[in-house]
Amino acid sequence: MKKLSYIIFATIILLVGCNEDLIDLENPNQYTEATYFKTADQCKEAVSAAYGGLYFEGLWSREWYFVFDLLGNEASPASPLQGTLAEFNNYQFDATNNWLNEMWQSLYRIVLRSNMAVTKIGEASEVEDEALKSRLIAEAKFLRGWAYFQLASLWGDVPLRETYEKTKDRETHNMPRTAKPEVLDFVETSLTEAIGDLPVSYSDQNVGRITKGAAQALLGKVYLYREKFDQAITEFENVEGSGEYALLDDYTHNFLSEYDNNKETVWEVQLEQTGGNPYWMFGGQEGWGGMASHSGRAMEYGWNDWANVYFSEDAVEAFRYDSAGTANTYIDPRASLTFYGSEEIGDTTYCDHCTDGPKLYPFNEQRYRFKKYNNYEYLEEEGLPQSSINGVVIRYADVLLMHAEALIRGDGSESEAIDLINQVRDRVGAYSYDLTEEDESALELLVRERRCELSGEQKRFFDLVRWGTLQETLNAEFGDQRVKAKHSKLPIPTNELDANKAIEVENNWN
């Protein structure tokens, strides 16, 4: 199988009659928390449930790409984009925004399910395959670590639930916020513990599960965000030295379903047209949507479909810069690989591989639109919101650029960092940087490179926040003062404030 099927386990409850004499009888066929996690298959299902959280609202089935492409000014809203999603580009969202609530809940759903898996698999004494148990626990620890890394990066101090405990006392759900450094310490511990029990790769039927390389890359990213540069470099070197990863010859293959799980993939969320309701990403994950696991991104971003967003004008300009310190304007080759545009910049044709040949992109009508994660080179329209293009979370190019950043910002070699950046540039045929000729610093080159290489991959907002340049950079691009200092953290959702009486916020924001 090309994909890993993420099956959400459910508790099976048999109906009993109304005879009161039966109420106190123990039903041997009824699963409970104490009786369910016994077999190897049940342990696998517990971890599958944790993976399943990735598909809930606010994450990879739909809103994740909208929220962070808009917040990072890589996408700008088109007229079809209405309601609370449109608030992100305008920075008019607050604690009542429903998509922030969904994101918060989905991340904590992954935490809950991962904690349950770690606890229950560890207690599954009847499962004799200790290597399997260790691997499953390691997968759950990674997913828990990833979820907490997102929570801490976005909200700062958040409630830290380190273990799973069954309780009937709702007051125990009231938990105060834990300081961000302590949360990130827990993330580091979870990932470090996971690395030793994760395999380098999997058989075809398990492709998509967490690997050792994915855990090392994410741990390196956590270290980079915390400015632990030497430790970050070590983890990135481990990934690069494994021999498991390489840059694809064709950049665009990273964003087409035909090439899912390729050699550049470090970790990607598996998406597939598995049937079920094509609109399941609007809330049918464990209800009316059926056994679906696809994304609405191609349909929603598609200029010839729902056309909800543009590729922002400021993002376009990032691909136009001076060449090697001269006044000669250079168009980065990734422009035509990333967005549709004009004769000056961007791709001017679509449907290049359709049976009736290439068609002229209607720039005057459509302006700049996303090419990444769409199928317009192979078909004229998406038709339904059921894209099977995997959601790339970490790819090898990002690892190389993070490694370069750690070298530049730490005590490493800038020339070594430029070599890493040039590996990424060489793949697309961009000219190589030479620090002796460039007017810009190595860090300035790295910042631009991350934007060109990773545009539309939900990285820029996180980068600007951690670099401390979000407000200054975006207000200059927007031409107004819509971004405030407070926006470096998202507001704790109202639903959490209503349910968790121990959580506190400052100035009605975070």
Can I get a quick summary?
By secondary structure, this protein is mainly alpha-helical.
Verbal overview:
The chain has 510 residues and is mainly alpha-helical. Among the domains are: 231 residues, Alpha Horseshoe (Serine Threonine Protein Phosphatase 5, Tetratricopeptide repeat); 62 residues, no CATH class. It is 41% helix and 6% strand. The protein is built from 20 helices and ten strands. Strands 1-3 form a two-stranded antiparallel sheet. It has a two-stranded antiparallel ribbon with strand order 2-10. Strand 7 and strand 8 form a beta hairpin. The longest helix is centred in the first third of the chain and has 26 residues. The protein starts with 19 loop residues before the first helix and ends in an 11-residue tail after the last helix. About 4% of the residues have low confidence.
List keywords for this structure.
mainly alpha, 20 helices, Serine Threonine Protein Phosphatase 5, Tetratricopeptide repeat, 41% helix, 510 residues, two-stranded antiparallel ribbon, two-stranded antiparallel sheet
